[in-house]
Amino acid sequence: MKALTDRSSLPLSFAQQRLWFLDQFEHGSANYNIPCAYRIRGSLNIGALRHALNEVVRRHESLRTTFAMQGDVPVQVIVPDLKLAIPLLEANDESMLQPDHGCSQPNLRPATRATSQRPDHPSSP
User: Fold this and answer.
1) Which among 39, 42, 102, 116 counts the fewest CB atoms within 10 Å?
2) 23 CB neighbour count, 10 Å cutoff
């Protein structure tokens, strides 16, 4: 198998075509977002966490892939460099922690609700 040299736009896979098609009906939907917040006890090296998560994104093109239209055909566009903004929230108040059935850890419901409902739109990273 030969590596592609022109990666500016590639055809969608069948799974990507499905996601693109569904997005046309519910543009801006957050249906595929799975929100979850984890409580971390003890000290946390925030710089190391950010570096590790950004390294995962750097290594996996699927995490940097967006959809665009080329004429009337949807294509995938792989962003060469993407740095995540990783918001952090200190939850010193135990009342903020509520169990969540979709997450193995307590979910910070008030803090994550707005973020989890923001659409993860396939046409923008």
Assistant:
1) 42
2) 19
- All structural domains of the chain, each given as residue ranges with its CATH number in brackets, are 10-117 (3.30.559.10)
Alpha-carbon gap, residue 64 to 10, rounded angstroms? 13
pTM score over 0.85: no
Tens digit of each residue's pLDDT (9 = 90 or more) over 5-33: 566 679 999 999 998 888 888 877 777 77
d(CA 52, CA 56): 6
- Sort 108 into a burial class: Cβ within 10 Å, 0-12 / 13-18 / 19+: buried
Residue at 123: amino acid letter:
S
Q: Residue 89 has which token pair? A: 């929230």
65, 79 Cβ separation under 8 angstroms: yes
Distance of alpha carbon 117 from alpha carbon 104, whole angstroms: 20
Instruction: Tell me the C-alpha distance between 10 and 6, whole Å.
Output: 9
25 compared with 52, residue with greater pLDDT: 52
For residue 108, give the nearest of 31, 39, 33, 30 by alpha carbon: 39
Residue percentage of the chain with pLDDT more than 70:
58
